[in-house]
Specification:
Blueprint lengths: L1 H9 L22 H16 L5 H17 L2 H16 L4 E4 L6 H5 L29 E5 L3 H12 L4 E9 L2 H11 L4 H12 L4 H4 L1 H6 L13 H11 L3 E13 L10 E3 L5 E3 L3 H6 L4 E7 H16 L1
Parallel strand pairs: 2-7
Antiparallel strand pairs: 1-2, 3-4, 4-7, 5-6
């Protein structure tokens, strides 16, 4: 015990919390992340606003000051590189969400909505008082997303890119099934209970008698063994983690090998995923980029291709 205590006292773990760790986008020689982003955004504003207005330039300057002060220039450049690669390959890509409130996003071609024309407030997207990182979601055709994802792995390094996991928790129906399985109940008997109970399971705690009066639950042996014990176990494991899945689009790009921050595992389809979901990932200062597969963009691409063939 004394040796264990000495080892514990000698250990010193310091987690670098409170610092955002953004991906490192490739930069031309002699450029900083800010200068490169400023040039790209200013060129985009000149292209979007003809003639160029003072209001657009002032808005761009204000947003760039905030982005630079918060340390997210590399983040915008990384997202831009992904969108540009998609366009080079002829893939439709479009940003969604609060990123449309930003003239920088509009100038870089990440979104297609003019924030000045529509009077959109940048502070809803990035606000220094809130302390949250920017969140840019990029939609791709469901056919194209995996190809862009492969490019992202290759460009930024397979040791620095991973999909973010999602923690799947036990909901009512699954909790009842797991409890019944643990008690050795037949699957048919468990299935008989799960469907009517799943929508009203919360009543077990508040008023079990009220649950028995529900039309859906009449005739169920709620008060007969082993169901009181089974439902009690099900209530206790409700919302507990069951397994890890993959976030629908969350991609993590780190400036260093990801294993410095989070353990990894390989999903069933071979994708490398984090073992932490998006909340602890953000607590560690890591920023996700959502690369989403959108079926509507696939239909859009198919329609354009068919119209082209029709002449």
């Amino acid at each position: 015990m004394d040796a264990t205590a000495r080892i514990a006292e000698a250990c010193n773990l310091e987690l670098p919390l409170g610092e955002w760790k953004t991906p490192r986008a490739p930069l031309p020689d002699g450029e900083t992340a800010f200068s490169h982003l400023w040039k790209a955004a200013f060129e985009g504003v000149r292209r979007r606003y003809r003639p160029l207005t003072r209001e657009a330039v002032d808005r761009l300057r204000m947003e760039m000051e905030t982005i630079d002060r918060l340390g997210f220039c590399h983040y915008f450049l990384a997202v831009r590189s992904i969108a540009e690669e998609a366009r080079k390959r002829g893939f439709p890509v479009l940003g969604r969400g609060s990123a449309a409130n930003s003239i920088v996003s509009y100038a870089l071609g990440l979104t297609g909505v003019d924030p000045i024309r529509h009077n959109l407030y940048f502070e809803r997207f990035m606000n220094p008082e809130r302390g949250a990182p920017p969140d840019i979601d990029l939609d791709f055709s469901w056919r194209d997303r995996d190809e862009i994802l492969d490019w992202t792995y290759e460009t930024y390094g397979r040791d620095r890119v991973a999909m973010i996991c999602a923690t799947i928790t036990l909901r009512e129906r699954q909790a009842i099934r797991e409890a019944g399985k643990a008690l050795g109940l037949a699957e048919s008997e468990v299935n008989r209970m799960t469907r009517p109970l799943s929508g009203f399971f919360w009543m077990c705690d508040r008023d079990p008698a009220l649950l028995a009066k529900r039309p859906e639950c009449r005739g169920l042996p709620l008060d007969q063994p082993p169901w009181p014990a089974a439902l009690g176990h099900a209530r206790r494991i409700l919302d507990c983690p069951r397994h890890l899945s993959i976030h629908c689009g969350g991609v993590l790009i780190c400036p260093e090998p990801i294993t410095r921050y989070t353990p990894l595992q390989r999903a069933a389809k071979g994708l490398v995923t984090t073992q932490m979901d998006m909340r602890p990932i953000e607590d560690l200062g890591l920023i996700k980029i959502d690369l989403l597969a959108n079926r509507a963009l696939g239909v859009y691409s198919d329609s354009l291709r068919w119209l082209g063939k029709a002449g």
